[in-house]
Design brief:
Strand order of the largest sheet: 5-6-8-7
Structural class: alpha+beta
Largest sheet: 4 strands, mixed
CATH topology of the largest domain: Methane Monooxygenase Hydroxylase, Chain G, domain 1
Number of helices: 10
Strand content: 5-15%
CATH architecture of the largest domain: Up-down Bundle
CATH superfamily of the largest domain: Phosphate transport system protein phou homolog 2, domain 2
CATH class of the largest domain: Mainly Alpha
Order of helices and strands: HEEHEEEHEHEEHHHHHH
Distance between the termini: 12 Å
Oligomer: single chain
Length: 352
């Protein structure tokens, strides 16, 4: 029995083709004419045949496979872009997968060129300035997914973000500590991994032959990892916020600081467990991370009542609440990642 779109479904399921043997050891199968016409193929054109994890074959027209041709984009600084907008536009071309990006600066000041060059260095992985003059910059964006596969890059990004979370609350009660500044600066390193991973995923979505090269199994994985990468980036943002708030709370008692650190340790455990669940596609680990998230929320409720003191100023009360909320949010982002891991453990439905 067929329901919505039944006729098309029946035709799809009935489109079986016999395998023919030619020569000594070769086997051939014909392609549906309608598909060949739809994708613009002609006789003697080439297609890529990719073996999938489930032993099926994926046939991709050659024009859809990323070839040796290089893509270049051009940015005009004279188009009313200020320095921050110019850097944002450069990053957008990087994320889109362009191989080279030329920035025409015109007669702009040298400080603009320095700002863009420093921003590229701080925010992006695998970008080299290969030409530079007083009026332009030419940057080459290397793919990098062979040397640093997606899962390995995500793991490294998560280690940095988790370390930021732990170090951020260590600032509590420490007068004149440089640790808060150092934690905040580390957010740039997380952003570099974030942009690098988004670039990989965008290239993979556009070029299906890259999916396995970056360490994934299907296009569905790209969406899941896109959401997970964003969650890790948000954990780092919250860690930077915790460090900034903790720096203003020098009056915290040692006992109160320890309790906040205990809550943060549990939050980080949720986060670390969720990352491992995603990388291993381990549903049991994912469920463990989700269950612990509820305990983090309960700890926040208890601490909000116990840590706030009458002698605190309004600014200190606000800072304390924001700090505890950020610790909880880090665990919740971990829980989101764990849910993605559970989703990806479910096999995609197969045609029957």
């Amino acid at each position: 029995m067929y329901i919505s779109g039944g006729a098309n479904r029946k035709q799809e399921l009935g489109n079986f083709r016999n395998i023919q043997k030619t020569g000594g050891n070769s086997f051939v199968v014909s392609l549906p004419k309608s598909w060949v016409v739809d994708v613009g193929l002609r006789a003697k054109d080439s297609v890529a045949v990719l073996v999938q994890p489930d032993s099926s074959l994926l046939i991709v027209p050659r024009k859809d496979v990323r070839g040796p041709a290089r893509s270049e984009a051009t940015l005009e600084a004279a188009q009313g872009l200020d320095k921050d907008s110019l850097l944002r536009h450069f990053i957008s071309y990087y994320l889109a997968g362009y191989d080279t990006v030329r920035i025409n600066l015109g007669r702009s000041e040298a400080t603009l060129r320095s700002f863009v060059r420093e921003g590229i260095r701080r925010k992006l992985v695998g970008v080299e300035i290969i030409e530079e003059s007083s009026t332009s910059i030419l940057a080459q964006c290397l793919s990098g997914y062979v040397e640093l596969p997606l899962k390995k890059a995500l793991e490294r990004m998560s280690i940095v973000a988790g370390g930021m979370l732990s170090d951020a609350v260590a600032v509590l009660g420490v007068s004149g500590s440089e640790l808060a500044k150092e934690v905040i600066e580390r957010d740039d390193e997380v952003d570099r991994f974030y942009h690098f991973l988004l670039r990989q995923l965008n290239i993979a979505v556009r070029d299906r032959s890259v999916i396995q090269e970056i360490g994934l199994t299907s296009a569905r994985d790209c969406l899941g990892y896109r959401l997970a990468v964003k969650s890790v980036e948000r954990v780092a943002d919250h860690a930077a916020g915790i460090a900034a708030q903790a720096e203003t709370l020098q009056s915290f008692s040692e006992g109160a600081a320890r309790r906040v650190q205990d809550m943060t340790s549990l939050s980080r455990r949720v986060f670390d467990t969720s990352i491992q669940a995603l990388i291993r596609l381990d549903g049991k680990l994912a469920e463990e991370a989700i269950a612990r998230t509820k305990e983090v929320a309960r700890m926040e409720d208890r601490l909000t009542g116990d840590v706030l003191a009458p002698r605190m100023s309004g600014v200190q009360v606000a800072s304390t609440k924001l700090m505890l909320e950020s610790v909880r949010r880090a665990a919740e982002y971990g829980s989101d990642i764990a849910e993605i891991a559970i989703d990806l453990t479910v096999a995609e439905p197969q045609a029957i």
